[in-house]
Design goal:
By secondary structure, the chain is mainly α. 69% of the residues lie in helices and 0% in strands.
Length: 120
C-alpha cells in the first residue's frame, strides 16, 4: 500500500468535496462544532494537493508530503502579503484558498499537467 498510486480521479474529487464542506462550515453554518477540524484539514492538504497533482510526481506519499508543505507555505505567504498590503481579511484569505483548491482540482480532473513532455 505504501507508495502506490491512487486512481486518477480520487484526489481531485476529494479536494472538491473538502472544499465544499469547508465553504459550508465557514460561510453557511459558522457555528458548527466540526468547523475547526474541517477547516484545519482543508488548509493543511487541499490547496497544496490541488497544485501538487498537476506535477505528476508519481508517488502518493511524496505527493502528500509536498502537498502539506505547499499548503502551509501558500497560506503563510498569502497571509503575509495581505498583512503587508494592509488588507488583512481572514474570510478573503480563506476564499482565496478555496478558489485555489477548486481551480487546481478542476485542472487535475481535466487532465492538465505541468512539466510533462508531449508524447511523440
Amino acid at each position: 500500500m505504501i507508495g502506490r498510486r491512487v486512481p486518477a480521479a480520487v484526489w481531485p474529487l476529494g479536494v472538491i468535496l473538502a472544499t465544499l464542506a469547508s465553504a459550508v462550515v465557514v460561510f453557511v453554518v459558522p457555528g458548527a462544532d466540526a468547523r475547526p477540524y474541517v477547516v484545519l484539514g482543508f488548509v493543511l492538504i487541499c490547496p497544496g494537493m490541488a497544485l501538487v497533482r498537476l506535477l505528476s510526481l508519481g508517488d502518493t506519499l511524496l505527493e502528500i508530503a509536498v502537498a502539506i508543505a505547499l499548503s502551509i507555505g501558500v497560506a503563510l505567504l498569502a497571509s503575509l502579503a495581505m498583512i503587508y498590503a494592509g488588507i488583512w481579511s481572514p474570510e478573503a484569505l480563506f476564499g482565496g484558498l478555496l478558489g485555489l483548491a477548486a481551480v487546481g482540482a478542476g485542472l487535475d480532473l481535466a487532465g492538465a499537467r505541468i512539466g510533462t513532455r508531449p508524447s511523440s
